[in-house]
Amino acid sequence: MGASRGLADxxxxxxxxxxxxxxxxxxxxxxxxxxxxxxxxxxxxxxxRNRNRVKxxxxxxxxxxxxxxxxxxxxxxxxxxxxxxxxxDWVRSHLETLRHAYGRQxxxxxxxxxxxxxxxxxxxxxxxxxxxxTVAIARELGSSxxxxxxxxxxxxxxxGDRLLDLLTQIGATRYLSGPSARTYIIPEHFExxxxxxxxxxxxxxxxxxxxxxxxxxxxxxxxxxxxxPETIANIRARRTEALIA
Length: 245
Fold this sequence. Notes:
- The chain is α/β, with parallel strands linked by helices.
- The chain has one domain.
- Strands 5-2-1-6-7-8 form a 6-stranded mixed sheet, with helices on both faces.
- The two termini are 24 Å apart.
- The mean pLDDT is 93.
């Protein structure tokens, strides 16, 4: 797991940290030499930063990490500064949901302790939790990708300029993005910066998922508990070359 090209080439991916993200997130991790958690951008209250879906006998349900983010405070708060609200025992609730949903799955016993060990640290920051979970799962799946945080860089400029500044500081020669970014990324800016721009298409085969019918848009833990180490093979099964902008 992790990209493999010439020494002069460096493929970077920049994504906001998310809670137990889906297969597509780990597809980008798998393709990257350097994966940047974009943790110094504004927290989006109704996005994927603090929640994801898992499959239960009643259908997909949300697992949401409660955070201290209300009203106008959210508007200017970076992801890296969002704190978790531990006033109720959400950790126990999430672990119980996972156990009831996946306890009989072939690889639950193998991967559930990994997830539990990080959740039970009950740290104060959302970004630390989500990043630690993502890195731990990636490493468990054999990833050699280098992980960094955007908050560790001094960046300037508007949204697009900041991204290019970040990629330049990393030394990226190629930037890989999900398909939705086509609506706001300007390819000419990357061309002027000498950075190749490519978009991936998400396409993964189904697997023997619990609680049919099959639902692809769920957390990677669904895949892990069902097919375990074959998760990477599943992600790569229909892979095609990324589309150059």
